[in-house]
Design a protein that fits this description.
Blueprint (H helix, E strand, L loop, with lengths): L16 H15 L9 E8 L4 E9 L5 E12 L2 E7 L5 H7 L7 E2 L5 H4 L8
Parallel strand pairs: 4-5
Antiparallel strand pairs: 1-2, 2-3, 3-4
Length: 125
């Protein structure tokens, strides 16, 4: 009788909360561009360690004196998961977080509806 091979599922351990905080902060600081056009705009990092909300905010004025104030990237830590809530940059924030040691299973693409998140099994939901 042939023995059936068993499938072993590997479980990626969760990264500790403090390590997630550090990875998110480093990733966001690295995502700040050297130059913003127009030069009357700036990217401001906002880190709320108490409520685990991390954001890059674009603010300033355009030439026509129009006020600019919007989030570029917004990330939250919720129940041991890193939720990418908004990404208005050209960077792949999920990949950058993975490069800093956060497993894809611990990252949730909160900027997508739940029905679409399920189509990307590499990321948590």
């Amino acid at each position: 009788m042939e023995s059936q091979s068993s499938v072993t599922l590997t479980h990626t351990p969760l990264i500790a909360h403090e390590a997630c905080q550090q990875a998110v902060i480093e990733t966001l600081l690295e995502a700040i561009p050297d130059q913003v056009i127009p030069d009357t705009l700036k990217i401001v990092p906002l880190f709320d360690l108490h409520y685990d909300r991390y954001q890059l905010l674009c603010q300033g004025w355009t030439e026509g004196e129009k006020r600019v104030f919007y989030p570029v990237i917004h990330i939250e830590l919720i129940e041991d998961k890193v939720w990418i809530q908004h990404n208005h940059s050209d960077r792949d924030i999920g990949a950058a977080l993975c490069d800093r040691g956060i497993p894809q299973s611990q990252i949730v693409l909160g900027l997508h509806p739940p029905s679409i998140r399920q189509l990307n099994p590499e990321y948590g939901s």
